[in-house]
Amino acid sequence: MVHELFGITNNRVAMASVPGVKSRDLQEIVLAVHQDEFFATNWHTNFGDLCMRVKELVDGYQAKHKSHENIQTIADMQRFVEHYPEYRRMAGNVSKHVTVVSEISRIIEEESLMEVSAVEQQLACAENHSDAVKKVFEVLMHPRVTLDHKVRVVALFALHYESQGRIDLESMIDRLKLLGVDPPRLRVINDLLEYAGASKRGADLFSSKNIFVSFTKTFHRELLGASNIYTEHKPLLDNILEQISKNRLKETLYPYLDSHSRDRPQDVIIFFVGGTTFEEALCVDQFNKNNPNMRVVLGGTTIHNCKSFLGALKSGLGVFDVPH
């Protein structure tokens, strides 16, 4: 989420433009697992749990220094940091996490990102066309959701329901035009389909070709429920790693260089030409913890967020240039 909202470059996050950040020490912060124990422990924690961990961090500092401020909310934590300059000096590692969490909370509230995230998860994980159309139009009509997020939700709908949602997609694009989305931003929808549409994908990204898998996923989601609807999506890499661990990786998609090598590998290097994501890094981290007899290393030419991915799409396809 930090990378998505702010961007992380060489473990650094620029916070100078964040409202309320006055301390020079907090205008650029470093998030590195080798230097920051809290970040190393919580880099993959969902936002709700992260807020509780940060509060525990602040409470621990208060107890150590015999402070009696009543801190119950993220705003309380931020005020505590602002009102005690000596706290920032003595506990800079804690204050930077309070600052980051406070800003994330502000953006989530102002841009209704919880609602957007729930729809994105449904588009990625569920197989229900009519309900997806309804949810997407709710996002399009939401007054606080930004135009960029609205375009992204429509693009995700187009990617999932490419074969059966063309008429609905045209209506969504018409709505985006009425909302003031300019042609260059609208083109990202077709560009995404050109780059990663059904005819371009080797693997079944949404499991829509397998009726049994699709039904099972929908049944589990709608009747049994998910532990956290905001973290339900698993990247395709999760399935690939599972197939590797069972020695069932399809040779048609992932051919062997050595035709005689058929044993399950113990050491696996996965490299994404074009870029990987922190979600895939989390997937590898969890796989390594659950499979101690295997070691997986993840690499890529960059670590993408949505903005950088769409920028790479623009650069790679050369289709965003507006005709003169």
Strand content: 5-15%
Radius of gyration (CA) equals 22 Å
Total beta strands: 4
The first-to-last residue Cα distance is 37 Å
User: How many DSSP H or I helices?
Assistant: 15
Give average pLDDT, whole number.
81
Structural class by secondary-structure content: mainly alpha
What does this structure look like?
The chain has helices at residues 2-5, 37-42, 47-64, 74-83, 85-90, 92-111, 113-125, 129-141, 147-160, 166-179, 183-196, 211-224, 236-245, 278-290, 306-317; strands at 12-14, 28-30, 267-272, 295-300. By secondary structure, it is mostly helical. The protein has a two-stranded antiparallel sheet. A two-stranded parallel ribbon has the order 3-4. The protein is globular, with a radius of gyration of 22 Å. The model is unreliable at 209-227 and 317-324 (pLDDT under 50).
In short:
This protein has 324 residues and is mainly α.
Helix and strand arrangement:
Elements: H1 2-5, E1 12-14, E2 28-30, H2 37-42, H3 47-64, H4 74-83, H5 85-90, H6 92-111, H7 113-125, H8 129-141, H9 147-160, H10 166-179, H11 183-196, H12 211-224, H13 236-245, E3 267-272, H14 278-290, E4 295-300, H15 306-317
Parallel strand pairs: 3-4
Antiparallel strand pairs: 1-2
